[in-house]
Amino acid sequence: MRSRLLIPPLLLGMLTLASSVIANETSLVVAIHVSAGVETLTRDQVINIFLGRFRQLPNGHLAIPIDQDSDHPIRAEFYRRLVGKNPAEIHAYWARLIFSGKTTPPREAESEEQIIQWLMTEPGAIGYLPADRLREPLKAVFTLDP
Hints:
Blueprint: H1 2-25, E1 28-33, H2 43-50, E2 64-67, H3 73-83, H4 87-100, E3 107-108, H5 112-121, E4 125-130, E5 138-144
Parallel strand pairs: 2-3, 2-4
Antiparallel strand pairs: 1-4, 1-5
């Protein structure tokens, strides 16, 4: 009986580890709808958009950044690759900014599918995905390689 109770947490841990390994081996892309009129973004522009420094695309339109769920391993990998910060450091960063009233964090999606849906339907929405999840009419404007 006891061994059955240990299997689900063990399985969950293995799945989390597998997701982390997959995240470390695949490129992540910052994606936007093709109609947004943005061809590429620089690392600094992506940092500024996702860290709330400014929320404007190069063409002057409003940028609406979208984060993966806070527990998703892709989110941790995105910020590690982008700015070298772990989830606790990103959380502390946003806690300070929210307290000061300077800006708000990116919108948080419940799933990868929700990110894709928002990118397809909301003008200015910008999010990140594993490169193999990119599909039309979305396009990559910045890539973070492993």
